[in-house]
């Protein structure tokens, strides 16, 4: 299997897993907000897999892509910088389960955004337990029949 | 003057000031990205004014509005919560000048988003100097011929 096929297969597998875990409405037709909810959950599944190929399959490879992580000193702008920022993020975990609870979803024409609270549980490479809460904004763009992630901004809570 | 007229007048005054400070292209026609750049700069002028009426004039009063500030513990969702979050933000300063340097702007149909580095200079109510760098994402929506802010997410830099 070519590398991209493998990546797509991983991403589709994640998407299928997420879809099956989400209660479906009785009607066969899925609303755009539901599709965005699934795409957003797929993003967290890809993050939790720490597989850069799975993450790559969810983003367009354009100069428009941008990411801000809790550890960022500047925004990562353009797909190559975003990709490197995820490699850096993934290297901070030996294992991680990332989810967003109660996402607030807005769909406007071919764009959607989601804001919510992320929970990350897992272990650092040195064995230390991870128990992190972050606030995140994700922007998605509809390309064909898929919702792709074009911006991710996550920030840690300030010390109280 | 009615309260809303006053607010609009304040916001328009800010917008006019920002527009005149920005070098204009030779062509009379302003591109959408330029219009978003101006709307984004107007947002920072409104923030710097610490006038909730000026800020209110830049947002639609809808349930879609959302804000995350560096001090937020959860996202503020819906205009009333967003408004309260700005009142809380403004109370943290006796004076402030907020700007975003080198905004990365993407326009997609009737939506635009901006990511960049914010600089805040001023004084706290107790006289302490403010010298803060934050990373921010702003989402704007075109309503009629105006770009309104529908989401603001700003986060402080993590300690190094």
How would you describe what is shown here?
The structure is a homodimer of 160-residue chains. With 160 residues, chain A is of the alpha+beta class. Chain A has one domain (24-156): Nuclear Transport Factor 2, Chain: A. Chain A is built from four helices and six strands; from the N terminus they run αααββαββββ. Chain A has helices at residues 3-21, 32-49, 52-56, 79-90; strands at 66-68, 76-77, 95-108, 111-123, 129-143, 146-156. In chain A, strands 2-1-6-5-4-3 form a six-stranded mixed sheet. In chain A, a hairpin with a 2-residue loop joins strand 3 (95-108) and strand 4 (111-123). In chain A, helix 1 (3-21) packs across helix 2 (32-49). The radius of gyration of chain A is 15 Å and the shape is globular. Mean pLDDT of chain A is 87; it is low at 1-5 and 8-29. Chains A and B meet through strand 3, strand 4, strand 5 and strand 6 of A and strand 3, strand 4, strand 5 and strand 6 of B.
């Amino acid at each position: 299997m070519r590398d991209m096929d493998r990546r797509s297969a991983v991403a589709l597998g994640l998407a299928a897993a997420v879809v099956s875990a989400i209660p479906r409405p009785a009607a066969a037709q899925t609303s755009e907000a539901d599709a965005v909810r699934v795409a957003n959950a797929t993003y967290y599944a890809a993050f939790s897999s720490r597989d850069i190929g799975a993450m790559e399959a969810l983003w367009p490879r354009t100069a428009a892509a941008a990411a801000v992580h809790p550890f960022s000193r500047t925004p990562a702008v353009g797909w190559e910088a975003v990709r490197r920022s995820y490699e850096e993020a993934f290297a901070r975990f030996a294992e991680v389960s990332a989810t967003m609870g109660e996402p607030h979803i807005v769909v406007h024409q071919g764009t959607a955004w989601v804001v919510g609270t992320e929970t990350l549980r897992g272990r650092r490479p040195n064995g230390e337990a991870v128990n992190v809460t972050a606030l995140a904004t994700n922007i998605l763009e509809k390309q064909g029949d898929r919702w792709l992630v074009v911006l991710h901004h996550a920030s840690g809570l300030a010390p109280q």
